[in-house]
């Protein structure tokens, strides 16, 4: 029989939701201000800041969802911690003892950590390095699950009941031998997050797009209404047509990143090629903008 245990998550979810909404509200405010301003470098700065806050809001949203889904499953095979798309497997035969947090000094958790939600690593005096999947408000609410190789900090509503259930499952004995590992599913399982080269290439493509946008926005205010276009059939065009260059860059960047992430999971070389194609595209578009504005 499997016991499903839920920690107190309300405070962590509320704080995370507030942080998420604040980021998205700030994003909307910056975008609104940017859309009502003339096109120049300052406006580009507003859009860039809005993009950063949007990305931060997405992160807080995912972490809040993970806090909402935090739960512990206990059966005769072991303890399984669910946090978002991550599963932490702890075999029953590896669990040596339980240590209440009130018996130890308060740890400092580094990682995803805010009031009512603490997931990450931290040093615990007397136990060493620990991995935390907890929603504690005070270190006294923590319960440490100690194994030979690793310590885990969790927060259960009833420590005595948890200890009794653990002992009961240990007496039954394991049916399946579990590995002591961290499993990742869905987006968290993408190999991109563990491939430094892929991350550098993707970041370079993003920076290239930002440079193209910044260059066009910086030059735009001083341009005449009609400018020469070496690539246009008429030879001249309205300066607003110049904006099609960075807009095209944004679209192609999105395509290269999405396809790169998807195909990188199947074949790293293909993913690298798509990220490189994204970089090359941004270089070509930046060159086109420079040629157009320096005739």
3D architecture notes:
The protein has helices spanning 10-35, 41-68, 159-172, 196-219, 244-264, 268-293, and strands at 3-5, 71-75, 78-83, 86-91, 95-100, 110-114, 117-124, 128-134, 143-147, 151-154, 182-184, 226-228, 236-238. With 295 residues, the protein is an alpha+beta fold. The protein has a domain at 190-295. The chain is elongated and about 80 Å long. β12 (226-228) and β13 form a beta hairpin. The longest helix has 28 residues, at 41-68. The chain has six helices and 13 strands. α5 runs antiparallel to α6. A six-stranded mixed β-sheet has the order 5-9-10-8-7-6. Strands 1-2-3-4-11 form a five-stranded antiparallel β-sheet.
Spans of at least 5 consecutive residues with low confidence: none
In N-to-C order, the SSE pattern is EHHEEEEEEEEEHEHEEHH
Arithmetic mean pLDDT = 91
From the N-terminal CA to the C-terminal CA, the straight-line distance is 76 Å
Shape estimate: elongated
Number of strands: 13
Helix-strand blueprint:
Blueprint: E1 3-5, H1 10-35, H2 41-68, E2 71-75, E3 78-83, E4 86-91, E5 95-100, E6 110-114, E7 117-124, E8 128-134, E9 143-147, E10 151-154, H3 159-172, E11 182-184, H4 196-219, E12 226-228, E13 236-238, H5 244-264, H6 268-293
Parallel strand pairs: 8-10
Antiparallel strand pairs: 1-2, 2-3, 3-4, 4-11, 5-9, 6-7, 7-8, 9-10, 12-13
